Amino acid sequence: MGVPVKGKSKPADAGTPVEKTGFGPLLEGMADKYGYDFRDYARAGLNNRIKAFMNAEAITTVGELTDRILGEPGCMRRFLATMSMGTTSMFWDREFYAGFRKEIIPALRTFPFIRIWHAGCSTGQEAYSMAVLMQEEGLYERCRIYGTDIDDAALRRAKEGIFSLRAMRRCTSNYIAAGGRAAFSDYYTARYENAIIASGLRKNIVFANHNLVSDGSFNEFHVIICRNVLTLFNERLRQKVHRLFHESMAMFGYLALGPKDSLLAGGLADAYSEANALNNMYRKIA
Fold it and tell me: Would you say the C-alpha torsion 177, 180, 186, 189 has a positive or negative sign?
């Protein structure tokens, strides 16, 4: 990532708090010009990601950073990728998928149609993992999976469904441990160094841009999966997102959070019952 520069630059100080480095005007400008509002992101994480971006782009001052992001759409796109990026792969959390098969699938069989929302889907591997699981459970033909993110570049990769063949092969053991019932290689075609997701898995997945900070509900869902995204937000924003999820979920639908996320952060704990506490899965009861 980044643009070529001559010479060396001094790395940005990753330990300086955001509020003391003058990032306020930058965050205000991004919200006004691009509609991306990072002002309620958790300060420590926001600070670290901005500093990492400055180092990658060889930017040494906040003024230069502000000018570049607000003046160059390409720089803004790279910054957005830095803010939204996360580690993801097919079946990366094997315990989660195994728990989903055991605790959630039996209830989903009672629904005539199933809508699943992956909020913060990044490049789509987890959405495709869910498609594999639903197909093996005989439910894929009557479900629709929505993968959303704020990063259009990541969404383009998700829609293409083309990933590193080496990385996909490394996921085989996770797939098996998650209860996989076929040969994992059946779900993609190997071509040179790439793995192309089977077209049958792509047909019921919709990838689209959605900003949890500013956008509202767009459907009623039976499952909402948001893992390792809420930790990026401060308490006020986490509460707002939890309200969005609650409003978007059908009665007796399921909410799946990441291992470091807390249902208590949303102030809606009484609206859910535990479905699988070990994997942070809850069922809406009110």
Answer: negative
